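Morning!

As promised:
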Amino acid sequence: MVNETQHTCSASSSSKSDGGSSSGSESSKDSSRCSTPVLDADRHERLREKMRRRQDSGDKWFSLEFFPPRTANAAVNLISRFDRMGAGGPLFIDVTWHPAGDPGSDKETSSMIIANTAVNYCGLETILHMTCCNQTKDDITGHLQKAKRLGLKNIMALRGDPVGEEWEEEVDGFNYAVDLVKHIRNEFDDYFDICVAGYPKGHPDAESYEADLRHLKEKVFAGADFIITQLFFRSETFLKFMKDCQAIGITCPIIPGIFPIQGYHSLRQLVKLSKLEVPQEIKDVIEPIKDNDAAIRNYGVELAVSMCRELLDSGMVHGLHFYTLNREVATTEVLKRLGIWKEDPRRPLPWAVSAHPKRRVEDVRPIFWASRPKSYIYRTQEWDDFPNGRWGNSSSPAFGELKDYYLFYLKSKSPREELLKMWGEELTGEESVFEVFTCYITGEPNKNGHKVTCMPWNDDPLATETNLLKEQLEKVNRRGILTINSQPNINGKPSTDPIVGWGPSGGYVFQKAYLEFFTSSEIVTALLKVLKKYELRVNYHIVNVKGQNITNAPDLQPNAVTWGIFPGREIIQPTVVDPVSFLSWKDEAFALWIEQWAKLYEEESPSRMIIQYIHDNYYLVNLVDNDFPLENCLWQVVDDTFELLN
Amino acid sequence: MVNETQHTCSASSSSKSDGGSSSGSESSKDSSRCSTPVLDADRHERLREKMRRRQDSGDKWFSLEFFPPRTANAAVNLISRFDRMGAGGPLFIDVTWHPAGDPGSDKETSSMIIANTAVNYCGLETILHMTCCNQTKDDITGHLQKAKRLGLKNIMALRGDPVGEEWEEEVDGFNYAVDLVKHIRNEFDDYFDICVAGYPKGHPDAESYEADLRHLKEKVFAGADFIITQLFFRSETFLKFMKDCQAIGITCPIIPGIFPIQGYHSLRQLVKLSKLEVPQEIKDVIEPIKDNDAAIRNYGVELAVSMCRELLDSGMVHGLHFYTLNREVATTEVLKRLGIWKEDPRRPLPWAVSAHPKRRVEDVRPIFWASRPKSYIYRTQEWDDFPNGRWGNSSSPAFGELKDYYLFYLKSKSPREELLKMWGEELTGEESVFEVFTCYITGEPNKNGHKVTCMPWNDDPLATETNLLKEQLEKVNRRGILTINSQPNINGKPSTDPIVGWGPSGGYVFQKAYLEFFTSSEIVTALLKVLKKYELRVNYHIVNVKGQNITNAPDLQPNAVTWGIFPGREIIQPTVVDPVSFLSWKDEAFALWIEQWAKLYEEESPSRMIIQYIHDNYYLVNLVDNDFPLENCLWQVVDDTFELLN
């Protein structure tokens, strides 16, 4: 009878017996399980394990290759692209390494920093390329140490292009990718997953196709976990290569590199670099339409789709690697037509999970940074303890210092002229500021006909969830309650709810109503009188830029405002209103008035002085309605406040 | 305007500024706040702080003195008394020290073990008395170390009675209580709160009343935190003493010792020991009724109530200390008439919180021990990490070994004859066992006319909450689903609900439905077929005594089955179904069949063989219905199982 179920396992009948326990962990209490409930196995897996699991489940996947951009502006755009293309569900992305571009530096555009951003701020599993020829052991070790420190877990080990025409091996130097693979395994043991390059037509510098296969086998036997191939033009090329690899004993995953042709010139350039030959039948199609970009791209998409289908249909291919050339349209189109672009509206947590290995257990964040997740990740990057740690004293260095936080990817995506059009070329008083906030909420154009699609506290249009509160928000912003964050109360909606759901299916999610705004001291005075009536129901924190802080919160305890109950799990409470971190957020929230808005205007201009006045005199307020099963009372609090003022 | 509220505080305006932070803890992230939400400040306070807080708030309190019992049976009864009298809300209890009774030993009846039980198993703040004369420094240090190790935090430092009539001071020995106070402070710094004795009439051995006051002052200045007085018969005696103490500079709390006269003989004995004189007016009343116990007790209660009223009305007394003589009725009566006996049906958590300082942060327990909390505390006493720790591998020594667990206070309170009447002098088959379970549920007498008020898994009558499920429970027990633990689902009832509520007011409590039972392998086979239909909704663990374990639980994660949402707090989830600890519980649950039930019968008797058969062949099953907002489906699961069997 016991054998009827899949989940049978045998446990020791005595609590002291040695053998046969059903538990996976064999040791004593020291290795007691983490207290953080595991919501998605994914978070705890290495890339090679994810790959293996997807292969076993027959679930096809894709990955995306990008190169580091040349300018800071291009970097900001590339990161937006990471966010958008990340939504399609790539198993990983990779970032190439250009020795000439100072790839290991701290520059905004270096390979290292772009990969760091992808992992830490975009939450993407990322492979950093690294080349080794013409570099010292110390340089390479330094790069690898830095990568590890930044939370990168995967390296694509490459030789790189030697300098000059005539190249000679250095004795004891890094002459081939295999040397780098060995070095990584020697110095970093099993920390990194290592990827190496395969050449379906053989490397152009190799003595022969067979010799190149033997080199590949050496790289794998030296410790590489999987192979990504150079691009190719016919599926047979890859399938033959794969069989040849298997024939000589290469058993690790081999991922075909797919290059959707996107334009005549990029194709020519790539062919030149890779020393590949474009098949005649492709040339025949392209040459006549070489000046028609759209036509070439359509053809490229067709070609890629049909080649990918052949690969997938062969049963030998489980994942496809795309050379995107940092472009979005062609690759996305191919993926959608193949049916492997999977936008999953379901979130594992109500905020984007970072892919840094240190943060994989993170399961709670203050609500304040809801619209500025990259800023939160940046400011907490030195934390060691995420699941159980709480926010220390606001005067402690636990939060990254504010002065550092103007990283390029925390800046607005919009240029100054755009911002001026949205937020006003010239402000005439506090009311013109109220109007900007109101237009942002309503989506209506301002009096100059421009839509307000971002604010200093929120670089994106209003969240779908906030739309639920639109009407009330509009009303209060018009009257000088300048809202920057809010959520409605929710009393047990299914975790699969398209707007407010998160976490595994079969669960229920809950929220306490939350409202955060800037407002004048006059309104705060009235608000405080009104709040006396709501003393037991509403928790408030009210603070000005000087740090005068008024609150009825008990001690310094966080208030959970989002939580979820799931089958067979402990309770998850991913969002809290934390009184200590609020004081750090306050610094950031007030600074944004000056840094992002006031500085758009000339010094001593009336517009600048209006923003400066608000910065100096307004209060930042947050309100929580603890009684989540009842109708949200925060609007009543605000109405009562306005009534008292009238 | 900021000054209008009480909660104003000033915070630093920069996250790096040194001064003026609103946070209480000044240091960095290292001292980050505990992740356990503080539900009751009480749990984290020392006794002297609790005393101070109650004095400041004007909230009168009482405490209770007990002496160690002479026999193990009497100890079991005393511990039940602790549980009952603990319900009235004493600020602390104290346990006296009798040098002749091996008070520091591990005997069931020693002062040390009785105090240990009060703290750890009854959750009572406890003072352990300790005397010092005729003892070596090493003995005393040993006792104190042991007390500390057991979680005792308060010592009443006494001289004790010297041996023999003629007593001489030992040089460098412990001659007076003050020597013990100094020793505790020298060796244990500020770890213990120290209480010393005061004599409102002067100590009988002192040269004079004034000299005795000076001795008392020495004890306080040596480090005592508060004073409890010897008994007295008139409130004026105490009030004069208190004024005299204050006059010479004693400022610590002085707590009057109240002795409700409970009988003629006990009064005579006490008077003889304490060398006190009973006032003539009391003698005049008592002598004529000396053979009428009830009359004397009534008079004693009257006398105590009026004296306590005078003391409390004086405004100088904030707490009253009662010499209970290990009796319950008189003291409880006095306290109730004074209005300071406060049975608070509201629980801080759904289980009784231990008073051990190490366990004060404990906030989650497996549901399995719900009816055996003392056993759970005993078996986890070596744990270091309560709030975030989880249960390690069941084969680890994290749980106290089963073989040790037959502590006297884990045994049934009922004698063997009682148990036989309830559970059957002679069993005729499995059905007669079903009948015992059914009678326990219904409260109806068994066929021999005896009510079944306890079971091996539950030493008390059915919990009020379980009554909610009575009808269904009766039905299933009759058919051989032998339930030992259950709870209904609850979808957000107020935390003040008299039956299922717990925690501070203004909150909401939730539960997932839970059912745990023993049943035959035939029923398990059918049940498993039925459970396939409920695969996504119901989590199950099914295990037999040999440890064959069948489950659909994901990994080894605990499933939260009780949680609460409170204003301004993080989520509290005090009860979980933990797959790992279930295997330790299984050992205990199966052992109870043999140890408590089978062993009532002769070896090889049919009755014993029936219980042995059940022990060897039945399964222990637990079921959780994850869909708490819907109607509990577990009864449907059981019904479907019976239907399948028919």
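Chain A has a mean pLDDT of 86.

Hope this helps with the figure draft.
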